[in-house]
Amino acid sequence: MATSGMIPGTTMSGHKRPRVDTTATPFEAGSSGQRSPIAELTAVSIPLIGNLSTPASLQSNPGQYFDLSQVINALISRDKMHADIHKFNRASINRVSAALEEQKDLQNHLEAQRKALEDRITQLEEQIAAGAATGLESGPQPRQKRNVALENAVRDMMRDLLDAKEERVQVPDEKMPGKFKTKVMLRLPHPLPDGAEKRKDPGGGVLFNPNWTVPSPLKDKVNNIRILLTSYKQGSVECTEKKLKTQAEQYFGSLITNYKAQNYPEQQKKQEAHKNASKRAQRKQAKYRNRTKVLSSFAERHSINTSLLAKVVVYEAMSSDDEGPGNVSQDTWNQRANIKRENDRAFETLPLAFRATWQVSRLYYALDKLAAANHNVPRFHGFRQNMQTEAPKKALPRSMMDHKWIAHPENEHVRTVEDPEGLDAGDLHIDDDELWPQDLEYLRELEEAYDADEE
Prior knowledge:
Blueprint: H1 26-32, H2 37-40, E1 45-49, E2 60-67, H3 68-129, H4 148-162, E3 165-172, E4 180-187, H5 226-231, H6 241-263, H7 265-292, H8 295-302, H9 306-309, E5 321-322, H10 330-337, E6 347-349, H11 357-371, E7 379-381, E8 396-397, H12 403-407, E9 416-417, H13 437-454
Parallel strand pairs: 6-7, 8-9
Antiparallel strand pairs: 1-2, 3-4, 5-6
Helix pairs in contact: 4-6, 6-7, 7-11, 11-13
Keywords: Coiled coil
Region (Disordered): 1-35, 266-286
Coiled coil: 93-167
C-alpha cells in the first residue's frame, strides 16, 4: 500500500512536531519533548566551552559547538585520573611507612648487637687482665701443639733420602772478636748438573738431589714431595697422608733456607735477621703475659679497675730483648753484659723511644717485680744508641706516648686514641719500693739524660 506523503515537521497523524530550540539547555529540551533529559544529552549541541581545567573561565565562543557527552566523558576521565593518583599516593605512603618501620627495627637490632659486643669486649678484657683468657692476648699467638714424633720421623726420612750428614765446623764468634766457636751444620748436597749420573746410597737406592734455588721449589718436578710419601714406612708414626705431606713440605722449606744460607752470604744475613726477630717477638710476648698475670693484684692494691688498667698494658708497648751489640762495639756491649767467657749469654732490653718513660715504664717495671719473674739469662737495660725509634703498630692512648717524640715532625702521622675514661697513665702513683733497685736506677738515669737534652 502506498504511503501518503507527509509534510515536513509533521507526524504520521498529521499533527505538527514540536520544534526544539537548539539554544535551550538540555533539561529545557527534555521537558518540552517526550524523551528524558539523559536521552537528549547525545542529541543536543551547546556552545564550545573555552577551558575545562579552570571552571572560573568557562565561556561560550559564539558560533562554536560540540557534544555535551564529550564534556561529561572528560570530567569522568579526570575524576578517574585523580582517583588513580590518590590511590598511588596512598600506596606510596604505605610503602614508605613500612620501610621506615623496618629501618627502625633494624636500628634497634643493631644497637642491641652493639651493646652485646661491648659487654663481651669488656668481659674479655677483664679475663685477659686476670690471666684467665690464655691465647686471647694481642700480639703473636702460641703455636699449635706440635706432633714431635711426626717431625722426627720426617726429619730422619728426609736426611736419609738426601744422605745429609751433620758436621761440626768452626765459625767466627761475634760476641768474642778474634775467637771462634763450634757450630753444628747439616751439609746439604748441591743440585746435579744436567745429564749427571744420579747419586745412590750403598744399597743402590737413588738419593734425593733437589733443585734448591728454583723460583718455586715445591712445584719443580725434581723436588716432587711425593717421593717422601712413597719412601715413608707405614706404621713408624700415626698420622694421615695429608699431615705427612704438610710436615714434609715444611721441613723441606727449612732445608731450602739452610742451603741458601750455607752458600749465599746475603741469604745467611737475612736468615739470621729473621731468626733474631722471631726470638725477640717471643721474648716480648713472654713479658706481656707475665705482666698481665698480675694486673688484678696491682689494680686491687692501687684501687684501679682491672679492665681500665689493661688498656695501657698492651703487647705493642712491650720492649724487646736482643743478644747483639747493635750500634755499639762488641767490647762495650760485653762489658755491660758481663760477658767473660765463650758461652756466656745476656739480653739487652732495648729502650722504646715512643714510650713515656716515667709513667708507662715505671708501671711495667712495678708489674715485673710483682710477678717476680725469674730469668734464666741475665738481662740489662740497653744503650741509648740501640733505642728503638719505630712507631707502634697499634694506636695507643696519648698519655702512654713520650710528649717530645710524638711532637716531632717525623711522627706527626702517628695516630693515638683518647685515654680510657677514668684512667690516665700519668696519674698512676707508684712508690719507689714497688720497683727493683736496678730498674729504679735505670729510670732515674733516663730522666737525667732526658732533662739534659731539653736544656
